[in-house]
Write a structure and sequence with these properties.
- The structure is a homodimer of 549-residue chains.
- With 549 residues, chain A is an alpha+beta fold.
- Among the domains of chain A are: 116 residues, Uridine Diphospho-n-acetylenolpyruvylglucosamine Reductase, domain 2 (2-Layer Sandwich), CATH 3.30.43; 111 residues, Uridine Diphospho-n-acetylenolpyruvylglucosamine Reductase, domain 3 (2-Layer Sandwich); 111 residues, FAD-linked oxidase, cap domain/gating helix (Vanillyl-alcohol Oxidase, Chain A, domain 3, 3-Layer(aba) Sandwich), CATH 3.40.462.
- Chain A has 20 helices and 18 strands.
- Chain A has a 7-stranded antiparallel beta sheet with strand order 15-12-14-13-17-18-16, with helices on both faces.
- In chain A, helix 12 crosses helix 15 and helix 18 runs antiparallel to helix 19.
- The radius of gyration of chain A is 23 Å and the shape is globular.
Chain lengths: 549, 549
């Protein structure tokens, strides 16, 4: 990936026609005059001097071989941070506060273990790195107060699928395998994992598991935590592996302590995942619903009846309005706008439903779902818009790059709560985001969708867009991030539904798990990583956010 | 419950007519002549002298009130042990190796916390106690090497349902609420939990959660670990509560560290559970299948298609043969025997399917399930046998009492593995049980059923019956338990699918989670229970089994 944004060079995704004009119109004067600000060149990124000792480097070379320890400028820049808004703001400006002194590429589980042993012996912090797509600072190359050097452990070479047991719907997959590779290799066996986060093209299975990822089709296939049957993890204290038995009462579930541990307890090297036969039929369609509340009730009813489609995604009124405004002159957009116009444009939400499975199963599921949607006032807008959503499902991050060049702040954050509390949480977080940015003179657009539904509740995914505060981009981001995080904690939502904690959500983890919960996580870390080499400054180790004070 | 067995006095469950003759015929001479051996009277049970100091007792009284600290003989006997085979052998003989010095009955979460604080301060071990139905020694009143006294913390007063959120399908329930009370209180809201372990009449929600229980309908409703949304736990280091959000990426899942912790990390006081509308229709039916392998393939196909009935229970050939032999002259038994006779009695398995839900849903599900069963050679035996199974679903433990009086060893053990390994595990464990008992001159009957099915595998539940070795009942039990445990570990099954670890499975936990896994559990315990007052000798704290050397 290019260091300053998403995708590879030459893979640009231009803003839809008219989008920029729309944003200027909506965001007001501040955005209207911004001249484009492209990222600096790679060679102009200033890195801290490398501090790895010769002895430490020699130990790493002994672990993985000379060819797999790299410390050239480009490699260090590409592993300095992830893809969060503050990461990109800093990378585009060529000023990164930290970078790995070297990047090591172990080739198997034992080499990962050897790297960790070398790090522990030489006092070098180790940052596990899959696709590097964290949007919460999870892969930022922090060394912490106790280590004089930091290396990134890139798991790209752990890319494989083996031990496929189709009868048991299980496969063992290397942690460094990217989304497309997972699906390509499983497809050879007629199988799928069905995990499609927006980062799918670049992120890895190990990263998904380490961050408790949810995919766009997780309502159907389950979150990654539902799909993990067993794990193999290298830690500075040895290897820990969990059994892939289907059900057990053999004490606490250590798998669930390792899933979501974000590289702070160990490095996941292999995952035994639950797989399924590849779907032969996919049908994506869009419906219009009278308002967000009606859409939420629709999703609740579908999920509690056990018939929610694999993709079940409800845009709020604002997201619907802006999507239709940007959708140009397609027939779906026209129908949608007509629908809204008939309602005075004050209301109206779109619901995207993606059915996947065998032909009979999809037909049967649609026949059960449609009456429920209609009962709540749903009007079919057809499948063309659904297919379009599916085709563009991974495009969001590309657009972000273009907006950043146009000096537009764009970020997302997500939470979840019970059905009973969902609308209250929705209002509280939206209000906090709007207030924080309005108070800084950059009133935002705030959109939201519900994209993961459970029997007991659902997620909320907010996107907000505002004119950048020139010269105070990080302070502006910090203000809105802090306001939203506080609002989520106050309303009892989770601080993150699928982006993980990393560095950017760490200040709120204590509110969610309590002080004793934090201590319990620290006790686990002390046992597995007694010298604290693994991913300092993340998860239980909250420091100040970028742009703070 | 009566101290020496199951149920209340006057609630006897006589053996089916002819059962005893059948067992004598099958088990041979050793069982033929056994004269009945009734349990001793309560007053004849010999207890160790109580060792609680006056200061410690005063601290407990301060925590819960004088009326809720009891140390009379009957109370101590009733809390001395659970309901495992070695427990009952010893209780019936009036010789219990350990008993609580007192039993305390806290009335709410804060009183539980106060009890634990008093225990920690005065060096008194504390054994959490729900229904007392553990079959793995989980509630045996062990004090461990570091404590001079032990009290049992009986949670019977924590019996309530509150904060029912029907929209979110969530309810908060007291840990001491028994199965019938859970269902009675939820029924007032039109809801059900759907958790029916064989111990249902006496066991409690807190006990289910602490032991990762599975119910007889868990294929439909999910294991208790699937049904727990949030927890509140009192520990000697403070309270830990987990949020009931439906999905989160906020780090490791601490809930899953507390579920299955068997009272060694804390005392569960409240559980927020997932609930559902009560089913309006239930249809239980029995099918005959050609053999175990065909039945397993049937269950696998049903589960992987997402249509397995709530109760999906497959008896192996031996269990089928014995059940039909004992079923007398019912029409189902006649049909079943005719089916077996036509196959030379060498093969044939019964499959019990229990459908629950709305009338339409049940009809629809049956219409999907039946062709699959028929495809694998299934022949319908009708619903009468299914209803009979349902009516007697909690009766097993009552029969055990009668067999013990008749000097018959009867015990059960359970495991689980992937579909791919299931038949190998079945053969290995069955062979180990048979060999161990044959080697002692008491050849057994060994039956098995598959009763919990998952997409990736299933459970195996073995029942074995043999003539008791007079005067060496515990040594005999130890021989077969050790042989079965070793066979399970060698074959990669879990040492327990739903009975938990307790004391009796602790020697095999290390084989399942590895030495570092054990250390991780010990680190969690050291943080939450630094002086080790909670349930010594259980889970991570393996001692010798009853009857060992």
């Amino acid at each position: 990936m290019r260091f300053w944004g998403w995708g590879t060079d030459g893979h640009d995704e231009p803003l839809p026609a008219g989008a920029l004009e729309l944003l200027r119109r909506e965001l007001g004067d501040a955005a209207a005059d911004a001249t484009p600000r492209p990222p600096v060149a790679l060679e102009d990124v200033r890195l801290p001097a490398a501090t790895l000792t010769d002895q430490a480097r020699a130990a790493l070379v002994a672990a993985v071989g000379e060819a797999h320890v790299r410390d050239d400028h480009a490699t260090r820049v590409l592993h300095a941070a992830g893809k969060s808004y503050p990461d990109l703001v800093r990378l585009r400006a060529g000023t990164v506060p930290s970078a790995p002194d070297a990047v090591v590429y172990p080739g198997d589980h034992d080499e990962v273990a050897a790297v960790l042993a070398a790090c522990a012996e030489h006092g070098v912090a180790a940052v596990p790195f899959g696709g590097g797509t964290s949007v919460v600072g999870g892969v930022e190359a922090l060394r912490g107060p106790d280590h004089a050097a930091v290396v990134t452990v890139d798991l790209a070479r752990l890319s494989f699928v083996r031990e496929v047991d189709a009868r048991s719907q299980l496969a063992t997959v290397g942690a460094g395998t990217t989304g497309p590779e997972v699906e390509r290799l499983l497809a050879e066996h007629g199988l799928t994992l069905g995990h499609y986060p927006q980062s799918f093209e670049f992120s890895t299975l190990g990263g998904w598991v380490a961050t408790r990822s949810a995919g766009q089709a997780s309502t159907g296939y389950g979150r990654i935590d539902d799909l993990v049957a067993g794990l193999r993890v290298a830690t500075p204290s040895g290897t820990i592996a969990t059994s892939a038995v289907p059900g057990t009462a053999a004490g606490p579930d250590l798998r669930e302590l390792l899933v979501g541990s974000e590289g702070t307890l160990g490095v996941i090297t292999e995952v035994t995942v639950r797989v399924r036969p590849r779907p032969t039929t996919a049908r994506y369609e869009v419906w219009a619903l009278p308002d967000l509340a009606a859409g939420i009730e629709t999703l609740r009813e579908l999920r509690q009846a056990g018939i929610a489609p694999a993709v079940s995604r409800l845009s709020d009124e604002e997201e619907t309005r802006l999507q239709l405004a940007m959708a140009g002159d397609s027939s779906t957009a026209k129908i949608g706008r007509a629908y809204l116009a008939a309602r005075g444009r004050a209301h109206g939400c779109t619901l995207t439903l993606g059915f996947e499975g065998g032909a009979d199963g999809v037909a049967d599921q649609r026949a059960r779902v449609h009456p429920v949607v209609r009962h709540h006032g749903g009007v079919a807008l057809g499948s063309r818009a659904g297919e379009k959503w599916r085709d563009g499902r991974f495009h969001g991050p590309y657009l972000r790059d273009e907006l950043l060049t146009r000096r537009v702040l764009v970020d997302t954050l997500e939470t979840a709560t019970t059905w009973g509390d969902l609308l209250d949480l929705y209002r509280a977080v939206g209000a906090a985001i709007r207030r924080a940015l309005r108070d800084r003179g950059t009133p935002p657009l705030v959109m939201c969708h519900v994209s993961h539904v459970y029997a007991t509740g659902a997620s909320l995914y907010f996107t907000f867009v505002a004119a950048q505060e020139d010269g105070a981009e990080l302070e502006q981001w910090h203000a809105v991030k802090a306001a939203a995080g506080d609002a989520i904690a106050a309303a009892g939502g989770t601080i993150t539904h699928h982006h993980a904690i990393g560095r950017d959500h760490a200040p709120w983890l204590g509110a969610e798990v309590g002080p004793l919960g934090l201590d319990l996580l620290r006790a686990a870390k002390a046992r597995l990583d007694p010298t604290g080499v693994l991913n300092p400054g993340k998860l239980v180790d909250a420091g100040p956010l970028p742009g703070a004070g």
